[in-house]
Amino acid sequence: MNVKKIRPEKYLRYLYLPNLFGTQRTKEILSVNPTIIPQREEAKEVLVYVFDYDAAGVEEKRLSAVSECFPYKASNRVSWINIDGLRKTDVELVCNHYNIHPLIVEDILSINQRPKMDEVEGVLFCLLNMLYYSDQKQTVEQEQISIVLGKEFVITFQEDASRDVFNPLRDRLKLSTSKARQRGADYLCYTMLDLIVDNYYVVMERLGDRIEMLEEEVIRNSNKRSLARINQLRKELIVLKRNIVPVRDLVNGILRSESELLDDRTTKYFKDVYDHIVQAIDLNENYRDIMMSMQDLYINNVNLRMNEVMKVMAIVTCLLAPATVIGGVFGMNFDENVNFFHQPWGFYTAVSLMLFIPILMLWIFRKRGWF
């Protein structure tokens, strides 16, 4: 006989109100203080991958140490060095070899940094977040990525070695006919930004599906749990806005840059990324407006149900009022000069009035359309 094991922790978490309304998530969203020195946890494992390519061929290699990427600085081909997992010593070692400014090193090692773009000593630096949607937690997860564009090289620093959005780029670099193989490092940087921005739409589509289902739930049968879901989705939209809106300024900074690292032919591609990020911002605002309308709809439904209850109670009170008056008259403590009290048909007359008057009131209410 198979006995299903019961996990109490699965159900006990719903008894704690902060878990229901996601207050812990609020703390995570608001816990951003740039004045505090970040204490980044050192990565247990650092993975280094290199794509060294030109129009004629490509070399893909996994390195066992970050120092093995140093020879690619003088390869006379475009080199993409991807470092998964951040350790301070490794980051400083690579940046010192490629003449990257210490301020950029601080930004790479920072936590919860606002997406931005800097141009320091012949190096173009982009910092932003890759977004993912967690089906298990039903939250938007973010991973900080730093892109350093130099002369004939691009170095990317990622926090999580288990995932990124660059697999389509890796597939393109293996094709000799792809544009990425024919262009320089600036086109490689554009492709990375384009993939990151396109993945924003994937996350927003998942949130859009949740918003659509929640809207149907609120319209059909809203309850307190619906309000909790509305609150949770609004927080995820805040996470989206915090990560998406600054990217517009980042791409705009690249478009205005007069760096020699950017080819004029690549500018139109960055304009395409700019259009996509503006559209993503507009879509996020539309989601936010829908959530505000949904919250108003929930409140209106609650008020409507309360009005229905109050209307029923008012009707019942009005229907019982004649019977209360008649019963009160018959319950008085005197009977002088009131011969009606002692008639054989007095009781039946009083009961008939108690029934007839409410029926007449119901007919009048119905005729006037009050219910």
List the helices and strands and how they pair.
Blueprint: H1 8-12, H2 17-21, H3 23-30, E1 47-53, E2 58-63, E3 78-84, H4 88-97, H5 102-108, E4 116-120, E5 123-134, E6 139-150, E7 153-158, H6 167-173, H7 179-182, H8 185-221, H9 224-256, H10 264-330, H11 346-367
Parallel strand pairs: 3-7
Antiparallel strand pairs: 1-2, 1-3, 4-5, 5-6, 6-7
What does the model show?
The protein is an alpha+beta fold and 371 residues long. The chain folds into 2 domains: 292 residues, Beta Polymerase, domain 2 (2-Layer Sandwich), CATH 3.30.460; 58 residues, no CATH class. The chain has 11 helices and 7 strands. The protein has a 7-stranded mixed sheet, with helices on both faces. A hairpin with a 4-residue loop joins β5 and β6. The radius of gyration is 34 Å and the shape is rod-shaped. It starts with 7 loop residues before the first helix and ends with a helix.
What is the ordering of alpha helices and beta strands? HHHEEEHHEEEEHHHHHH
Total of helices: 11
> Which secondary-structure class do the elements indicate?
alpha+beta
Strand portion, in percent? 5-15%
Q: Just name the CATH architecture of the largest domain.
A: 2-Layer Sandwich
CATH class of the largest domain reads Alpha Beta
Q: What is the count of structural domains?
A: 2
**CATH fold annotation of the largest domain:** Beta Polymerase, domain 2
- Overall residue-averaged pLDDT value: 84
Report helical residue fraction.
55-70%
| Lateral arrangement of strands in the main beta sheet | 2-1-3-7-6-5-4
Query: Could you give me the name of the CATH homologous superfamily of the largest domain?
Result: CorA soluble domain-like
Sheet with most strands: 7 strands, mixed
Radius of gyration, CA atoms, in whole angstroms: 34 Å
End-to-end CA span: 56 Å
The strand count comes to 7
